[in-house]
Amino acid sequence: MTLQNTKTLKKQVAPFEKSTTKESVWQIINTVVPFIALWYLGYLSLSVSYWLALVPIILAAGFLTRIFIIFHDCTHYSFFKSRRTNRIVGTMMGVLTIFPFDKWGYEHAVHHATSGNLDKRGTGDIWTLTVDEYLAAPLKLRLAYRFYRNPLVMLGLGPIYVFLLKNRFNRKGAKRKERNNTYLINMLIVALISLLCLAIGWQSFLLVEGSIFMISGALGVWLFYVQHTFEDSYFEEDKEWEYVKAAVEGSSFYKLPKVLQWLTGNIGFHHVHHLSPRVPNYKLEEAHKNTPPLQKVPTITLATSLKSLRFRLWDEEQKNFVTFKEVRVLAKKKFTVQQVKPEI
After folding, report:
1. How many domains is the chain built from?
2. Pairing assessment for the beta strands 129-130 and 313-315 based on DSSP bridges
C-alpha cells in the first residue's frame, strides 16, 4: 500500500460514517425482539427436552451476538447521532450482553489505537508473543501462554473469565464516571437475573441463559480472534507502525455466508471498522463495496479461518504467524547458527 493510498483511504470511507436513526431503531427491533422470543421458546421447550430447547437456544445465541454488535457500535458512538442516546442504548445492551459500557469502551478504544503495535500490547487485545519473546521466556511463562492459546481454553474458559468475572470489576485507574457505570450495569444484571429466577426458577434460567452465554461467548471470542490472527497479519514496532496499515492489513475481511453475516452484524468487514470506527455496522458492507482498495485486503472464509487455530506466535523476521511446531524448527536453526558462528 502506497503512502498516497493510506492518506486517501479514510477520506473515501468518510461518507459512510453517518448513522441513520430509522435503520438503528429497526435493527434494535429486529434483533432484541427475536432474541427475547427465542429465549422464551427455549424455556418452554425445556418441558419437552433440553435437546429440543437447544434449537431456539442456538438461534438466540446468534441474536445475542448481534445485540453485542449494537452495544459495540454504541461504545464507538456510531449507532446514533446523539451521544446521550448511544450511552443509554449501549448501557441497556450492556445488561443483556453483561458488558460494562464505559469500561469496555475505553479498552476497545485502546485496542483500535494500538492494534498491531508490538510496543503497545496488553489492553483490549488477545495475548500475543513474538517468536523471540517466547523462546527467551522462562518455562512457567511459556506454559501459561500455551494454556492461554489452547482453543478449548480460549473459547471455553475465556468467555467465563472475561465476561462473567473480569467485566464485573473496574480497571485500575478508572475515573468515577466509568466506575459508576460498571456498578450500575452490575446492579441491573443482578436485578434482571433475580426476576427471571423468581419467574421460571434458577434451574431453568441456568439451562437457558447458561447455554446461550457459552455459545455466544465462544462465537464472540472466535470472531475477535480470527479478525486479527491470520497468517499474513500486521505487526510492527512503534516507530514503524501506521494506523491505516494496521487497520486494513492487520484486520481481516471475514467473508461469511449471508445469514451469518447478518447475525454477526457485518463485523466480518473488520478492516472497514478498524479504518473508521464511526461507520455503523449496517453501512460496513456498503463502504467496503464502494472503496476499491478495501476489496484487496486479506480475505478469509469459514473454511480458511479454521487454520487460524494453529497460529500461535508472531515471527518478526518472516512477518507472519507461525505454529508452535514451526517455532521448534526455527529454534533449532537459530541454535545451529549460533553453534557454527566463528569467534571474533
Report:
1. 1
2. parallel
pLDDT digit string, tens, across residues 57-88: 999 999 999 999 999 999 999 999 999 999 99
pTM of the model as a whole: 0.92
Tell me the residue range of the domain where 124 lies.
Answer: 3-340
Q: What are the φ and ψ backbone dihedral angles of 127, each rounded to 5 degrees?
A: -55, 120
